[in-house]
Amino acid sequence: VTTDLKRILLVEDSKQDAELTLEALEEHHLANEVVVCRDGAEALDYLNREGIFKLRAVGNPAVVLLDLKLPKVDGLQVLERVKGDPELKTIPVVMLTSSREEQDLVRSYKLGVNAYVVKPVEFGSFVKALKELGLFWAVLNEPPPGSVPRRGSQG
Amino acid sequence: MKTLLALIAEAPEKLQFILDSLGDGVTVQDASGRLIYANPHAARVLGFDSPGELLDAGGSSARERFELLDESGKPLTGTREPTELARGGQASGWTLMHFRVRSTGEERWSMLQATPLLDAHGKVERVLNVWHDVTEQRRAEIGARFLADASILLASATPDYAATLSAVAKLAVPRFADWCAVDLVEGEKFRRVEVAHVNPEKIRFAMEIEQRYPAPMDENNALVRIVRTGKGEMMSEIPEALLVQSARDPEHLRLIRELALASYVAVPMAARGKILGVMTFVWAESKRRYTQADLKLAEDLGRRAGMAVDNARLFEEVRALNETLDRRVAERTAALEDANRELESFSYSVSHDLRAPLRHVNGFVELLEKHATGKLDERSAHYLQTIREAATRAGQLVDDLLSFSRMGRSAMRSDPVKMETLAKEVWTELEPERGDREIAWELGPLPPAQGDPALLRLVLYNLLSNAVKFTSKQPSARIELGAVEKDGQTVYTVRDDGAGFDPAYMDKLFGVFQRLHSAEEFEGTGIGLATVKRIIARHGGRIWAEAEPGRGAAFHFTLPQAQEGTP
Hints:
The complex is a heterodimer of chains A (155) and B (567).
Chain A: E1 8-11, H1 15-26, E2 34-37, H2 40-48, E3 63-67, H3 75-83, E4 93-97, H4 102-110, E5 115-118, H5 123-140
Parallel strand pairs in A: 1-2, 1-3, 3-4, 4-5
Chain B: H1 4-10, H2 13-21, E1 25-30, E2 35-38, H3 40-45, H4 51-56, H5 59-63, E3 66-68, H6 82-87, E4 95-101, E5 107-118, E6 124-133, H7 135-155, H8 161-172, E7 179-186, E8 189-196, H9 200-212, H10 222-229, E9 233-235, H11 240-246, H12 250-259, E10 263-271, E11 274-283, H13 292-371, H14 378-409, E12 415-417, H15 419-429, H16 431-434, E13 438-443, E14 449-451, H17 453-469, E15 476-486, E16 489-496, H18 528-538, E17 543-547, E18 553-560
Parallel strand pairs in B: 13-15
Antiparallel strand pairs in B: 1-2, 1-6, 3-4, 4-5, 5-6, 7-8, 7-11, 9-10, 10-11, 12-14, 15-16, 16-18, 17-18
Helix pairs in contact in B: 7-8, 7-13, 13-14, 15-17, 17-18
């Protein structure tokens, strides 16, 4: 399987959450820029171009939207590996989570997370939050060198 | 009435009788210092059996029969004795003589007055010595001082009572005994905690004998007798027959004879009706004898020692008990901490696993609404609306519950809090809820409180938003927040003239998810007052309410006053 390099890596184990996130991003025409991984191990494979992602194009996504609770390798572990890897640590990581528990917040920031968002229950707020996130990290923010450039801006 | 002198002149043998029966010693020396007369008492005081023996010993050799000592019992040198003074023509006055009788080794004390007797020419012809023996008084004094010193030791005893008893035994030697042994009862046996003697060689020697010939555990052993009877024993003179009787063989007899045991006192160490041990005192080489007074003194000491041992053991028991308690508290605390951690991970799961499906319901309903715009009849649209509202509300409940449980666990600050400023801020914050309603807001002067500013803000927010909410059905309302000082605490009161509630349900008022009004009447999750109560309780305060349906409600709560010296 080969996969194109996308601008947004969404790591989300819940089918429903993934679908809602894509719907929300779709409202801002960002859905095509998203690759979805269903657990932490898969996400690390994608980032490191290993396993089923061995053949994907070189480059880092502009942002990783990372769910906290994941099967196999959980979100905090993925975050730790990304921020501890010289090749990956410049990728902005946004923690997306259901949890309001403080320890996750504190641990995430200690591990070097770039943003931390508690998913709102209300869909309207969720869409709004994702719009802002997507716009900021995938569109407005100047990504670090080695990230895939914005479509259409290549000229 | 004839004078004494006239009586003596008539019958000189009467003088002999008087001197013989006198309780004081009288000796007379000639000018050269030679003894020419001694009455029986003087002979005894100086360690001779009779005046004849004393006189036969002659002048200077009689003096050699005893040795003068200083206060501490060491030989005294370089002092002019009273007799010498008198031979020089000077009366000595009463002088305390402390000496050891060389033949018996016995220490004695005597007051001596030496007076020169002059001839017709005023020359010293004789010296008259009067001896007043004070040995018994001095011994009693020394014994009393020993008892006092030992009592101080025992009274300040540490839990290491064996060490204290050792020290007491060492204190007894040589003031009250040549030997002192302390044995503690341990089950059916004795544990010897100390044997004291001024000479360590002697102690080794005695221990060797004890090892070769252990004391029998029967009635022949004074220790066994004393533990059984609880009574002290005194033998002022140990008879030779007793030594022979207790010796196992000729070698044993030879060895115990070498110890020269002369007199003993053995007393129980008792407390609360139990014999805890025995103290034994023995006079040996100093040839002294115990008296009934010594037995009383030793018994007194035994009682004090028994109490000291008992106290030390009780102290140890209490300490061990405390240790057990500490350990138990630590165990329980650990168990509680475990339970708390479990609860935390439970709320963590709730937070994750309950919120997610609610979010999904919400999200997909919204998507459905969007997709089906124009295709749904009014009733279907209403159903979707209801589903969304229910999911949103359930999400709110979960969030409230989680913050409520977090509040119980989080660390609390303790700062001075300006309650009045806080109340003004909260009132402003409530502007959206108040809208353009007509509310008379009365804020009394509020003294500052001591507590966690964020939590106290939550208290005021909950109580004031309740007041706003429960007055919302009326055209105009009145809400008051005031305070009074009472018993070192401040009682704050929030009062409204709104819907009130039935005091019959007062006990449910502060419960989690307890609501006294239907959701249609007044919205809310029923967690606000539970939160308030929890915060007040964590501040060491109390909260209570009074109300009547339709006549408003008042909430009173107490908080500690701001600590002095802080702004």
